[in-house]
Amino acid sequence: MKDIEYGIFMPVGSGGWIPSGNIPELDASYRYNLEVARDSERFGFDFTLSQAVWRGYGGVSKHFDVNLESLITSAGLAQATTEIGVWSTVNTALLHPAVAAKMVATQSEISNGRTGLNIVAGGNRMSEKQMGLGLDLDNAAKYRRAGEWVEIVKALWTSSSVDYEGEFFTLEDCQSDPKPVGGVPQMICAATSDTGLAFVAKNLDGVLFEGTSRDSVISIGQRARSISQANGDALKTYCVFMIIPGDTDADAQRRIDHYNEGRDLVAITNMAREWGAVSHDPTAYNPDNESWADSTAISTGTVAGSTESIAEQLADMIEHADVDGAVFIMPDFKDDLAALGEEIMPMLVKGGFGRIAAA
User: Fold this and answer.
1) Gene3D superfamilies under this entry (predicted)?
2) CATH number for the domain including 106?
3) CA 225 to CA 308: how far, in whole Å?
4) Which of 211, 202, 232 is nearest to 314 (CA)?
5) In which domain, by residue range, is 287 found?
């Protein structure tokens, strides 16, 4: 049996993960996320993960316009659960490492060591711009800043006092107590480029990625494994999967077609700007032009079909991409989560992909 970790990417942003006017209502409330966390724990998932978004993408769907703060949300979920891991996300441009170190250590005490941290090294251009941060930094500089950030928080979690003078941060006799329960929490970062994967392999414990197809999942997973081996072979790989279950494969496809019919091109455009896929100059891009005629609301790697079909597809990609974990998103975090926890996960574990907790 391959010991796979399974997580749930929490719906802390309004609209969930699909920029469409035809999706189930997800209000991004703490009450809704509390229900999701408790259900995820009951189904035996290993951890929850919440994103950090400071500016939404608008449009008719108001995609991510409402977004809970990640660290505070996870602290609340930690208090309300007993076993499941509660992982947060921090943008290294927006929170000083000494402040983050104290907050994560406090969260670790609340959860009795169940915390983990996902850092954002680059990206979030629109969020940073609205705050006047990072405007003169290219991606290489952002990775250097993130490297310093990680070095500092680790030092504060393990040392009584830290002196540090770097390109981006300066600390003098900086102290931070309490320390995290059980030592330095696991830290991950999203990356797909060789530069990003090398940064994560050198500085962190795991890489988070998503693929747009079976081939891309396998390609990124294998590249990550190769880069890990070149850097001590300690890097864990976590792949994000969008699951869309149906009674049959055709039923699942009808769901996809329905979401795509309501696609929100304004939100999709703003998401593309955020991640640098199109120009930030509003006059340089028109969401009605022909180049985006085939844009879909579902852009993350999607695994759809009957529960049996989804289990088979997941097992195939987990095996051939050689990943250590799978993180799930879905249109509906009630019925879809139940299908995942009650039907799909037991099939994966029975097939040799899982942990006893997820059986």
Assistant:
1) Luciferase-like domain
2) 3.20.20.30
3) 28
4) 211
5) 5-358
